[in-house]
Amino acid sequence: MTHRVLVVDDEPDITALVAYHLAKEGYRVATASNGAEALKAAAEAAPDLIVLDLMLPGVSGYDVLQELRRKAETKDRRSHPAHRAEGRGRPRSRLSLGADDYVVKPFSPKELVLRVAAVLRRLGGPAVASGSLLLVGSITIDRAAHTVSRAARCSS
Could you tell me the pTM of the whole model? Predict the structure, then answer.
């Protein structure tokens, strides 16, 4: 399955660089140069991931991120577009708005492509419903009780 990625940046050289490296890795890439275009493209193309510059003219990347998190069709869904914020400023503010990851400019295109792949891998994993048990070998994680336990070994 080819993942769809939306790249949003008001600097054409950066947009082209990021789009080129992602396309080279096999992603289907769409681009937008401002926040309004980003919201429209996200609604039309339903990307699997958005590489989003925060410092956009008009509708900022922060506003785009908040709007996508506010909409019923993108809020609290495992299938919602992942948001990858890039820009300058405080990383905590990006993550607190709902970004799944961030990178600060200037960035390495190779690192960006690797981080995109990592976010998509995390989103592609099986969903664990709140309150469910997760079993890994002899380890049990109870998300509702916030406990981890290990089964006792039987000696023969």
Answer: 0.69
